[in-house]
Structures are given as C-alpha cells and as structure tokens.
Amino acid sequence: MPEDKKNSFLTDKLDNLRIRQKLMLIQIFCVLLPLLITDSVIITLIINEEKRVAMQEIENIADSVKYTLSDSIDNALGLMQNIYVNRYVNEFLTSDFASPADYYDQYTHFIKDSLYAVGVSNSHYNAVIYADNDGIVNGGYFQRLEMAEDTWWYRELEENDKSVMIFSDYARTGMNNSRVISLVRYMDYYNRNQGKSVLKINMDYSGMSLDIINAKYSAVLYVCEGDRVLFSNDGRGGLQVPFENMDEETRRSAGVHETINIYGKIWDIYVMTPKIDSGEILLRNAPLIGGLICINVILPFLIMGLINRSFTQRIREMDKIFRDVDGEELKKLPEVRGNDEISALMFSYNRMAQRMNELIQTVYKNRLRSQEIDIARQNAELLALHSQINPHFLFNALESIRMHSVLKKEFETADMVQKLALMERQNVEWGDDLVCIRDEVEFVEAYLELQKYRFGAKLSYEVNADEECLDYRLPKLSLVTFVENACVHGMENKTLRSWIFVRISMQEDALVAEIEDTGHGMNEEQCRSIVEEMQNVSIDKLKETSHVGILNAALRLKMASNDKVRFEIDSETGAGTMVTISFPMDELKRISGR
C-alpha cells in the first residue's frame, strides 16, 4: 500500500473515532506501556538505593563502634600515663618498709597526701601496681610482683619488647570470675634500675559493653580478638560468662570489617549485613508506588474526562444561561474557564450581560430606590413631627421655670431645668442623625447630672473621652441610650452607692466606647442573649418588641457602620456590667467626611 494511501487510511479511521476513543489509544500506547517499563526501572532503583543506604549505615556503625572503643581505651591510657609519671607513686614503690605496720602507716599517708585514691576511684577503671618490693603488703592499690609472675599476661609482657600491652581475659576479679580488658605497662619512668614494677589497669568492661548495646544499632555487630568475641549487641554473652568464639561463616557474612590496632593487638569489628526484603521495601515505599500509579493511570483517565467535558459542559452552561432570561436582569456565567474559542464566547456574553444590567440598574432600579428613599424620608419626617408637638412652647415653658428658679435663687433647680431643656432639644431636632462625639459626650454628662440630681450621693459618675475622638461623628443618642440603660437597670432599687463610667478611646483600628456600671449585673446567659439580639437586630424585629431602647441604638450604629460595629457585654451578678462598642475606624472616617 502506498505511503499516501496508508496515511489517508489511518486518518480516515481516526476521524471516525470519538474523542474518548482517541484519548484511550493515547493512554494505552503513550502511558500504560511506558508505565510498565518506567515502574520496573524505578522499583529496581529503589531496591538498589535501599541496599546502598543499608551499607552506608553499617559503615557508620563500624566507625561509631571504633570511635567508642578508641575513646574508652584513650581514657584508660590517660589514667595510666598520669600514674606512670606520678613521682609520688614511684617514690612510694621504692620506699623501704621496716614492717607491715610501717607499710600501712606510709600507705595511709601516701593515699592522703597524694590524692592518689581520689584520682583512681573517680574513674571507671581498676588500677593495681605490682612492685618488686618485699615490704609491700598485698592488698588495695599495690601488690608484690610475685602475685603476677605466674599469670599469662605477665609472661607475655616479658616475652614482648613493648612498653604497653592490652589483654582480654576471663579471670577472677573480686569474688567471681568475669570478663576483663586490661592495659599493662612497666613502671620505669623514674626507677629504671631500682627494681621492677608493673601497672595493670582493668578497664570498665561492663560500661564499654553497655555503650555498644545502648547505642541500639540497627545491625548486629561483633568486636573480636582473633576468634574470641569481646563485645556484641546480639543479646548473647555477659560480664560473668567466658568469651565465645566466632565461626568462620559468620565472619564471612559480615558486610563491613574494620580493625583497631592497640599496641600490637588487632581487634576486628564485624557488622552484619541486614537482610533486605524486597517485599518489605515495596511495602515501605507503597505511598511512592501508589503515587506513581495515580499519576500514570488514574490521572490520565481524569484528564481525558476533563478534556471531554471542556467541550460539552461549557456549551451546556451557556445554553442554560440563554434560556434563563425571565428575571429582572441577565445572569452572568459564574466562571469563564480556559483560553479557547468557547471561553472567548463566554467572556463576550458576560460583558454583554454586565452592560445590560448596568443599563437596567441606571434606568429602572436606581429610580425605584430613589422613590423608596423619598417615601422613607417622608415617613421619618412625619414621625418626627408627631414627636414635636409644640416644642417651642415646651422650651419657652422650661425657660420660664428656669428664670423663675434663678430669681428665687434656686440655682440647682435652674441648672437641672437647663440640662433638661438641652436634652429635650436634642430629642426633637432630627435634621441629621449624626452628631459629633463632643456633643454626644456633653449630652451624656447632662443626662448623668440629671440622674445625680435624682439619686443624690447614691450615684457617682466619670466620663473620659480622648481628645482625638471628639470630632468624629456617631448616630445621635446612641451612647446615651446605653448610659440610660446602665442607670435604669443597673442601679435602681440598689441601696449601696453606684458608679457609672463612660470611656471613649482609640484602640488600634477602631473607636471603642465602654459604658460600665457597678449595679446588679447579669448572668452569662443573659449577656449572651442581649449581645445576640443587638448583633442581629433589624427594623422588623424592632416592631415585634416593646423594649426598643438599646436595640434601636444598636440598629442605628449597625446601619451607620455598614453592619461592621461589634458589641460585647461583660457582667457579673451583684458586681456590675460593662458594655463595649467597637466602631471600625474606616467607617468612622467615612461618616465623618475624613
């Protein structure tokens, strides 16, 4: 078949397939087959990496054990060197002792004066000096050389021309036999021609063994001298059992072999290779393998579904929007996805719908809203007129009473009438619902002064407002309503003296007003209920209740702040109540024209 016809045949076949079928072919030949090869390579790499990490880990274990043993031996050598060059020790070894009593006397003075016992006892080692001095009484830190001459370690020391040697043995120490690691050297620093002395330091075998065991290495290890196992972490052996022998097979199976040369003695460190279970490795790496399956199998299926949906779903969304044109405005597509021709068409429709809605808003809705605002203003003015029956007559009558009180020299009554007139004028003048905080504070003080005239010494008050707060504006009578509530519900029917505190300050990004009283107080449930009512108050809810004082003030504060004002009540029964009003600074600047 010619090449052109072959290509045409394949193209015709592909053209007749649905998009879903084409995507399936892509997934099989471009995803699944490469997946089998790729995953096999990855799993092999994972297993090899586990082996490499395991080998690196046992190498680190061998280095750690080598360092631990070397450190212990170096500490023992340091102690040996200190004793070796100690002049007092050497002088004592060559002293003449007339009798055992004389020896004990000089021994006691030596231990006391030289602090020898302190240096040896504070270490983890047991030091004994064998000296060729017949005056020495065996025991403690010193013994006669004849006690060591029949031992194998002394014979080996004599046979080798070395100043220091190390020995491992299972020998009697104290009451029982135990494993011993010893450092031995001649004490010839000062007395090369005055007799022979040998220093033997038994190292802390138990401590060295525990250091290896407590390290909790992840692999089994052995420290051997020849065939003898000196240390291990496999749970075998112990301080008071003989050293075991290590077979050749175990030695050959070690993954790492290190050596330590200690004055001619070679210690071998064998770290066993941990068993690597491929199944366990795969199980441990199950999240990675599962992730690969998700990426190479599940994800392509999802992508194919998304691609298929991208052609049809967006067209169905547009069809649904075109059919839903019965409302007052054209609905916009909630989301324009993609950057292809379909998304361009969706974007153009949204621009058209936005423009049409703006025209509807301008021509129809804004006019309707303006009419509603005019009607609401007229109703408010009507209500204001109802509440202002003969206000000038009332003010003139109050002024006459005040002047009459002045003429009678009843200045306190005149002052109270003046404050009452101020409050009444504030109540009936509703040209603007917003007043400066300075005027609101003045009105609060006038109200509290009237209440003090009523209650006398039973009421005390304190009003503090930061100077920077006074020129901002708030809804009229909003603060005095909460002050009135504190007087009426806080201190009435209370026999003891009560205080009312009003504090206005700037705190971070809000103006904070605090109205506190020392009245009866409330329980936690009452506080929570009142705060919830204030936060959720509305005109409809005001119509349903006869107690509209603080709810009315709360509603006007919410309306002035675009529902951003926040209320808090902290109260304790019998102790008092504090109401905190937080008014956002950005809204405060907005209504104050700043």
Report what the structure shows.
By secondary structure, this protein is an alpha+beta fold. The protein has three domains: 15-284, no CATH class; 292-382, no CATH class; 432-592, Heat Shock Protein 90, CATH 3.30.565.10. Helix content is 55%, strand content 19%. It is built from 19 helices and 17 strands. The protein has helices at residues 3-16, 19-84, 87-93, 100-114, 116-121, 152-159, 205-214, 248-252, 278-284, 286-323, 341-386, 391-407, 411-428, 437-455, 478-491, 524-535, 539-543, 549-560, 585-592; strands at residues 126-131, 142-144, 164-173, 176-186, 197-202, 221-225, 228-232, 244-245, 254-262, 265-272, 434-436, 459-465, 473-475, 498-507, 510-517, 566-572, 576-584. The strands form four sheets. A five-stranded mixed beta sheet has the order 2-1-5-4-3, covered by helices on one side. The protein has a five-stranded antiparallel beta sheet with strand order 8-7-6-10-9. Strands 12-14-15-17-16 form a five-stranded mixed beta sheet. The radius of gyration is 50 Å and the shape is flat. The protein starts with a helix and ends with a helix. Mean pLDDT is 77; it is low at 375-397.
